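Data deposition worksheet. Section B asks for the primary sequence of the deposited chain exactly as it was used as input, without tags or linkers unless they were present during the calculation. Section C holds the resulting structure in token form. Section D is free text for depositor observations; keep each observation to a single sentence. Incomplete worksheets are returned to the depositor.
Section A, Depositor: J.P.
Section B:
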Amino acid sequence: MKNERFFLEKTEFYGYELLVDLRKIGQADFKGLWARLDAVSEGLKLDEDMFFIGYEDYREMTTENKTFKYYAMIPSSYFDDMPEGMVSMVLEEGEYIKFESRFPTHGPKIFQKAYKYLHDNNIDYDNRFDFELIPRDSHPGAGIDEDESLLYIGLKLK
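Section C:
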């Protein structure tokens, strides 16, 4: 599976949160969440090479509780102050690995393939979260042509 390791400096993000039931993931309103972020980021001078992130937090998920928190986020550096109603989170500095994915085939199966690759190659990673690195013009609220949109799955290495 095509992948690349990269180093990320500690980065703060602002965005919106959505509680997702893994058993009903197809019903989650990801596009609506991204449209909210798009409305707030409209008019900002975004760098050509900037990435949004879609962050999946699994820390509270158990075999009984099949829910996780999904965040649509933008780097905080684009704002003077955190807009009302947003939440803040930080990606810690460290080595990460990213796997290429494309809409519309992007979904749970690509994550399973990435995790299988890590397991099969004895690569230790932080399993409390993963995230999507989404180029500026490719996020689900941007009215994209989903057949062409590139994104990456990111995982923090131990």
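Section D:
The mean pLDDT is 85.
The domain at 3-156 is CATH 3.20.80.10 (Multidrug-efflux Transporter 1 Regulator Bmrr; Chain A).
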